[in-house]
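Operator note (shift B, R.M.): manual run for LysR family transcriptional regulator requested after the automated queue skipped it. Running by hand, logging everything below so the morning shift can see what happened. Input copied straight from the record, untouched. If output looks odd, do not overwrite the archive copy; leave it for review.
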Amino acid sequence: MNLQQLEHFLVLVETQSFSRAAAKLHLTQPALSRSIQALEETLGGRLLERDKGKTLTALGELAIVRARRIRVELAELRRSASLLADYAGGTLRLGLGPTPTAILSLPLLREMKERYPAIKLLLSGGTPEMQVQELREGAVDALVVHRNHIPADADLHLRFFPRTPLGFVVRAGHPLAGRHALDFDALRRYAVAASGRAISDEVMHRLNAYFGPPVHFIDAIQYQSNDIQALVDLVRTTDTVFFGVLQVAQPAIARGELVQMELRPELALSSQFVFVTLEGKTLPPALLRLGELCMQYLSGPLDPHSG
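Run finished. Output pasted below as returned.
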């Protein structure tokens, strides 16, 4: 068994076709077939049910997981070689959810430019499902996303960040600014802006309970976007009410442009994000440093409430 045979097997599974896999690998179909057969002989069993649409056998299911991990480790080894020598160069690729994008993008880009100018930093977004797939395929090195968006799969390693508070924010001078009570009719009157992925089911249930039945908080959300900064700018320039991670609005709050609503009774809600890598993957020093920076910028007051 060799790495080339494992790569042939991976491409065949990904393309679901001997002809497409052979073309992608620049091999003849007989040569690809011989490579797969040699791998099967080494492992002692069939990897594919060739008479059933090339579905994986039990051995094939086990082999594909290990083969993907080996592919990622090999790519990581190549990258790490250039990153180990005092962060001398290379590329780090980080997938971010919408809220981490709003909080982390500028600080991370600035930090890497100032302290590690030889390293390329690529930040990307996407749906949670797409981002997890990219992580498994080695297209990104790590993810920073909401904990609820990550499946409980054995090949994923999660490092949890401290919880960060959720709340309502309005522009300075807004009719609701300074009020300690907030009713659902007022929310409906001014409309709410929130991230399309920011509100977990648990947070939604607690918001419904806070405002009382038969309220459905989702009905008050009129503007949704995964561009969180655009939502903050909307709230800063209109009477729209922002609901989400307060840290996103903190710069505008510090400038006096936005105001956090201090509600009574307190609406104690929080969200939690995670730093996701592949289990068993050796992380290069620069990626470890990137994780530390994410922890620094995402850290907030601990909150016992879930979100």
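Quick read of the result: The radius of gyration is 24 Å. Residues 300-307 have pLDDT under 50 and may be disordered.
Leaving this for review. - R.M.
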